TrEMBL record:
Keywords: Cell outer membrane, Hydrolase, Membrane, Signal
InterPro entries cross-referenced by the UniProt entry: Lipid-A_deacylase-rel
Catalytic activity, as annotated: a 3-(acyloxy)acyl derivative of bacterial toxin + H2O = a 3-hydroxyacyl derivative of bacterial toxin + a fatty acid + H(+)
Name recorded for this polypeptide: Lipid A deacylase
Alphabetized GO MF terms: acyloxyacyl hydrolase activity
């Protein structure tokens, strides 16, 4: 029996930790990305900071939850195809300055859900619900930030085929 609420339940499970955070978003972001074989995407989203912080000798670790809505595009045998995507992802960020400005590195694992199975001329996913594994770097200056991320989307071998897709993302964000 196919359970249609499974993607929603999975997203809620990832977000449950955000109960300790303020539910007011602290900012928004835009991402443009490219993938192999003429694939690309554009996402827009909101950021919720957690109250958790960890100071190290040289910097600061913070945690935030990101939710985004986006559009993927890829080449098919008959032209371009597009896919609508929703992503929910916690992100750990290490700031090289304790004031949370300047350079940072970040990473996180979240969930991605597309409106249909991702099928292009070069790749065929088997599921609409996938994991989003992200690493990146960036720079915060005042209320703005820019970053470069690499995100890998796949179902972690839950079902085959599972070719995965890698997107190199250029990101711009603004804090409220």
């Amino acid at each position: 029996m196919r359970i249609k609420l499974l993607p929603l339940a999975a997203c809620l499970a990832v977000a449950s930790g955000a109960a300790h955070a303020d539910w007011s978003p602290s900012g928004f972001f835009f991402e443009g990305a490219v993938a192999d074989h003429s694939g690309y995407s554009f996402n827009a989203g909101l950021v919720w900071p957690w109250n958790w912080r960890y100071e190290t000798a040289g910097g600061l670790v913070t945690l935030q939850t990101e939710a985004s809505l986006g559009q993927w595009s890829g080449k098919s045998a008959t032209g371009r195809v597009s896919f609508t995507q929703v992503v929910l992802q916690p992100i750990f960020r290490y700031h090289f300055d304790k004031s949370a400005t300047g350079f940072f590195v970040e990473g996180g694992i979240g969930l991605s859900y597309t409106d249909k199975v991702y099928i292009t001329a070069s790749k065929t996913f088997s599921t609409r619900l996938n994991f989003a594994d992200t690493i990146g770097t960036g720079y915060s200056f005042g209320a703005q930030e820019v970053g470069l991320r690499l995100t890998h989307y796949s179902n972690a071998g839950i079902k085959h085929p599972n070719p995965g897709e890698n997107f190199l993302q250029l990101r711009y964000g603004v804090k409220f």
